[in-house]
């Protein structure tokens, strides 16, 4: 699916209607139609998900699919949600709804929860202004919603959106959408087709002056069903706290928990291959890991030659994320997409996740419109039909990862060029220079010195001429070395800075693919 088209518009059986229930605590907002109340809580949602998984998967049929498919990128821009139909318009969390379109053609049911009861928001064409589009008299009255978004106080912009499969995203603390999250990932990056379970229903809990909006979601797909509770707050950044209860309908070869989806086309580490005038194009520039043993790792992203999956084996990880560390506008020169403002996404498990691995999947791309990077946790224990998998985590949407230690430096740039020394001709054959910049921690106030060393290791080849210097006029320190290798097989690399017996930085990891022979 085309990433930009999929995201452009975002800035099972339903709850039974007509059943007995307690009186609705507050009258529904003017402009929305509601069904009758029925009892609701998370335990009921869990029971429903479990019952779904015990039965064969039956994909729903949807009305007017051919007509919905005709609502392309240009047409969906002309269909506007009417502000008078906003849910909770005077609260801290006003909510508006998305219209179905070609890139999200499957409707979801949306309910409102208050006082222990839920009422479905009954879809009506009058919620949307589609005049002048030519489809306003053709769509059926029960079309349904594509999803919803939570608006800022002024109701002109949004900060949280759910739309399509199990995708959701936030603009973070710099009001710019970028990388996305998903409820679950199944068989990502494998030779067989990836499965995309979807959130089929949502329940939005009335805030009543609270600091958070609570969202419940029912997940369903061929291999799994599940119940989700998502609590979202919007302060300096955005924090979503997630509790999930999954029930396997079938054996799952690769289960991806807390999946993050992003885009990396090129950056400082491969700008020699760039096909665009802008210096860098990416939503995220690296995978950050905080292992169960406390090691901090930075793995710069790449645009690989073929689909590439790396597993970082761990036990009870403390965190991981796809980050956008480079926040300098001059490095992107894009005043439309504003890649320098894209949020970093950081996962912090609640409770122990046991043995498993953080997996990073990188897919070749030739344009910025495609999401081509996925990161998630996959348990070591296989998921079999009938299994119940529960997990919880916090998902931070903000400029930098939280809780980064003050006593070590972090990687801020990776650059690659020809090996050897300028002016020495000929340059060494099969030699590649790596330059890694670090900042922060003990390096911030350290005067220039020449006994800081790069500690390196590689899977093949040899390291030559390693050294570390402080970059003149900055607080950055630079590690440089030449890698001499032959052949085109990939090389795994590690590097960190040390002074005597003291570790000064996080560990830089890289997977280098030497240029193919001409």
Q: Would you kindly provide a brief summary of this structure?
A:
With 518 residues, this protein is mainly beta.
Largest sheet composition: 17 strands, mixed
As an assembly, this protein is: single chain
- Strand proportion, as a percent range, falls in 35-45%
Mean pLDDT across every amino acid position: 91
Low-confidence blocks of residues: 1-29
User: Gap between N and C termini, in Å?
Assistant: 34 Å
Rg from Cα:
25 Å
CA-based shape: elongated
The overall strand count is: 35
**DSSP helix count?**
4
Q: Percent of residues in helical segments?
A: under 10%
Helix/strand/pairing class, anyone?
A: mainly beta
Describe the structure.
The protein is mainly beta and 518 residues long. The protein contains 4 helices and 35 strands. The strands form 5 sheets. The chain has a 17-stranded mixed beta sheet that branches. Strands 4, 8, 9, 10, 11, 12, 17, 22, 25 and 26 form a 10-stranded antiparallel beta sheet that branches. The longest helix has 12 residues, at 42-53. The two termini are 34 Å apart. The relative contact order is 0.11. The model is unreliable at 1-29 (pLDDT under 50).
